Amino acid sequence: MRRITERDQSALAEFYDQYGALVYGMTLRVLQDNTLAEEAAQDTFLKVWNQAERWDASRGKVVSWLLTIARFTAIDRLQKEKRQAPPSSVDIDEMHGLGEADASLGSMAALDAEALRELLRQLPAEQVQAIELAYFQGLSHSEIATATGQPLGTVKSRIRDGMRALRGMWLREYE
Amino acid sequence: MTTGNQTKYTSECDELSALLPAYALGASSPEEAARVRELITRCPDAEQELAQYAHLTGMLAETVTPVTPPPSLRASLLAKVAAESAPSEASAPPAPATAPAEKVIPFPVQAAPRRAFPWRIVAAAAVAIVVLSNVYWAASLNAAQEWLASLEQQQGDVVTLLSADGVQRLVLSSTTGEQALAVVLWSPDQETATLVTNQLPPLSDDLTYQLWLIGDAGPVSAGLFRTNDAQQVAYAFDTLDGLTSYAAVGISVEPASGSTAPTTDPLAVGAVDALDV
User: Fold this and answer.
1) What is the pLDDT of residue A174?
2) Residue B113 carries which DSSP code?
3) Higher pLDDT pick, B258 / B6
4) Contact check, Cβ <8 Å, A113/B80
5) What average pLDDT does the segment B139-167 reach?
6) Would you give the DSSP letter of residue A85?
7) B31 CA to chain A: closest CA distance, Å?
8) CB under 8 Å to B228, separation ≥6 — which residues?
9) Does residue B32 sit at the A interface (CB-CB below 8 Å)?
10) Cβ contacts (< 8 Å) between B85 and chain A: which residues?
11) A152 inside 8 A of chain B by CB
12) How far apart, in whole angstroms, are the C-alpha atoms of residue A142 and residue B219?
C-alpha cells in the first residue's frame, strides 16, 4: 500500500492481482451485470490509486477497507442506473469508521467468513433477504419496504431480529 | 421519534439497542442515524454492541464469492493509471461539480471521548464537499428568497442582505448527504453575519442548535439558535474576527444551554474557502 501511495504502478498491478477477484465478486453481487460490475471494479481500484494515503494499518484490514469502497462504488452505480437519489443516511467514511472498531470487540473472537455463512444459513430467509438488501443494495428501511412490498415495520423487525440473532449466535458459539 | 420529555436512562438505551443493527448496516433513515449518534454516548454498553454489529456487517463483505474478472479489466485499469500519471503532478483536485460519493468526514464512533471528534479534519475536508456551482446556488437562492419574503416584517434586514451587492454566501451542506442545509450571508465589512435556513428540523425543548466557527484552535461557539414555528431560521451572529479567519462553519445539536465545545458530530458544515472573497 505504501508503494501505491508512492505512485508505484507495479504495486497497483500486484494489488489488483491479489484482490481483483474479491472486488469484482462484490461489484457483481451488487450490480448483477458484468459490464457495470467491471466498471465499478475499475473505479474501485482507481480510487485506491488516488486515495491510498487515506488508509493506514491502524484502520484495520486493507481488505475490509477495499471491499467497503467496492461496495459503495457499486451501490452508487446501482443508484444511478435506477435513477434514484443517493441514500442520504449512508456515509462511506462512517462505515469505514464502524468497521475499524475491532478493538472494541473485547474478548470476542473475530468471526470468519465461513462461520458467518453458516450462521446466515440458520436465519429465516426473509431476514437474510432484508439484511442483504440493506447491505448489498445500500437500501434504507423504507426503500426495502418499497422494493419488497412489505410494511415498513416488518422490514425494521426483520433487520433488527436477524442481526440480533446473528450476534446472539456468534456470542454463544464463539466466545 | 423521541418519547417526549421522558429521558429514562433504561428506555433510551433500549431504544438505542434496537436501532444499532440497522445503523451498522447503513439501513437507518437520517432521523434514526441522528438518534443513534445522539444516544451512543449515553449508553455504556452501546459502543461494544455497535462494534459487534459493525464487525458482523463487515464480515458480510467476505461472504461474497470471488469472481475472476476478464483480463481486459486489468489492462484497462493499468492503462488509465498510466495515462493519469503522465500529465503534471500539479493537477487540480477532481472537479467539485461531481460532488463525489464519499462524504469525506471521518465519523469514527469510538470509545474515545466524544469531544475528541476531529473537527479540524472536518474543516479541511469540507473544502472537498461544499459545491458552489451556479445552478445549485440559484436553486437555493430562489428558495431562500421565497420564504424570506414571508419573514420580511420581522427580519427586514435579512432580505436586504440577500439582495445586496458584495454579500458573500456560504453554503453549509449536510454531513449525511449532499443537500444544502443552511446558508450564511456575510458582508466582509460587517462584524455580523446571518445564518438562514428552512431545512433544519425543529428540536425538542431540551436541545438547541449551536453554530461553530472552526479555526486552527478548533471550534469556537457563535451562539445558539432555534427554528421558529414555520421551521425558519434567520440568526444573526458575531463573526468575531471575521469569517475568513476561520476554515469552516458548522452546526451541531447540543443540550438547551449550549456547550463549550461540540458534543455531537456536525449536522452541516461549510468551508470558508468556498467563499469567493
Assistant:
1) 65
2) -
3) B258
4) no
5) 46
6) P
7) 8
8) none
9) yes
10) 7, 9
11) no
12) 36
The whole-angstrom separation of Cα B188 and Cα A86 is 36
| DSSP tag of A123 | S
Closest residue in A to B85 (Cα–Cα): A7
Among A12-21, B18-27, B172-181, B234-243, the range scoring the smallest mean pLDDT is: B172-181
* Yes or no, beta carbons of A21 and B67 under 8 Å apart: yes
% pLDDT > 90, chain A: 42
Question: What φ, ψ does residue A124 adopt, rounded to 5°?
Answer: -60, 145
Question: Per the CB < 8 Å rule, is A112 touching B21?
Answer: no
Dihedrals phi, psi of B94, to nearest 5 degrees:
-55, 145
Residue A128, number of CB atoms within 10 A of its CB: 16
CB pairs under 8 A between A and B: 210
Work out the minimum CA distance from A149 to partner chain B, whole angstroms. 17
Strand partners, B192: B238
CB proximity B74 to A under 8 Å: yes
Is the pLDDT at B223 greater than 50? The verdict is: yes
Half-sphere exposure of A7 (CA within 13 A, CB side): 7
What stretch of H or E contains A146?
helix A141-148
The minimum CA-CA distance between B189 and chain A, rounded to whole Å, is 37
pLDDT in tens, A123-163: 999 999 999 999 998 888 999 999 899 999 999 999 999 99
The answer to whether B204 and B238 are in contact (CB under 8 A) is: no
Longest distance between any two alpha carbons in chain B, whole Å: 67
pLDDT of residue B122: 37
- Categorize the per-residue pLDDT at A30 as very low, low, confident or very high, splitting at 50, 70 and 90: very high
**Interface contact B48-A105, CB threshold 8 A:** yes
Distance CA A138, CA A74 (A): 9
Question: Per-residue confidence at B67, pLDDT binned at 50, 70, 90?
Answer: very high
Nearest chain A residue to B51 by CA: give it. Answer: A101
Global pTM reads: 0.53
Q: How far apart are CA B55 and CA A42, in angstroms?
A: 26
The secondary structure element, H or E, covering residue B149 is helix B134-151
Quote ipTM for the complex: 0.80
| Closest of B200, B197, B241, B204 to residue B222, by C-alpha | B241
CB contact under 8 A, B77 and A42: yes
pLDDT surpassing 60 at residue B90: no
Taking contacts as CB-CB distances below 8 angstroms, the residues of chain B near A132 are 60
